């Protein structure tokens, strides 16, 4: 555990989800692969994967705010692709429903490390807990029921590092931002976002890298840990 700033008393601990409370890499790779395969068969379009990526990038450029909600971004890109293929409104709605459900099914095939629910259960006896994510995982769906508040970027406000979700958390629990300790793996979206919003920030460094390995990071966290269980020492 390394401290870079003075740690002040806090009442709320907020958590990023992906790559903070579980390994997200293989899960998202599988979900995307299954989504592409399923939709390609459904639409009978052999070039779907290539065309889909073009539409996804186009939607992001045309509507960057929409792309902060990763589920709606995926839906809109698929909707525009299907419309360009000449599909009817009924076909588009049916394909969207089936394809997005397929993606979300595989998106939630997450194997939690045993210590994750254990740490959350221990912390919730003394603190209010929140999940603040830019992703589309539903914590309840993967067995994490410890959160008093769940906020997703795009759906509930601007995505991190924007201050929206942090300030909404402070308002919900009726605390000052300084009384929130945010835990996350990303030095930009989590650490920079939390510090800029007036919160305190824990960088969970699971890769054993140094801060100097991330030149894009502009703000120091309050402290750095290498394992989730270190939070119990606070």
TrEMBL record:
In its keyword annotation, does this UniProt entry include Cell division?
Answer: no
Q: Which SUPFAM superfamilies does the record cross-reference, listed alphabetically? A: HAD-like (SSF56784)
Q: Which Gene3D superfamilies match?
A: 1.20.120.1600, HAD superfamily/HAD-like
Which lineage? Answer: Bacteria, Pseudomonadati, Pseudomonadota, Gammaproteobacteria, Pasteurellales
Provide the alphabetized UniProt keywords.
Hydrolase, Magnesium
Q: What is the species of this protein?
A: Rodentibacter trehalosifermentans
Q: Per its Swiss-Prot or TrEMBL entry, what cofactor is needed?
A: Mg(2+)
Pfam entry (one): Hydrolase
| Entry's Gene Ontology molecular function annotations | hydrolase activity
Q: Which InterPro entries match?
A: HAD-like_hydrolase (IPR051400), HAD-like_sf (IPR036412), HAD-SF_hydro_IA (IPR006439), HAD_sf (IPR023214)
Gene Ontology BP term (one) = riboflavin biosynthetic process
Has keyword Magnesium? yes
Name the record gives this protein: HAD family hydrolase
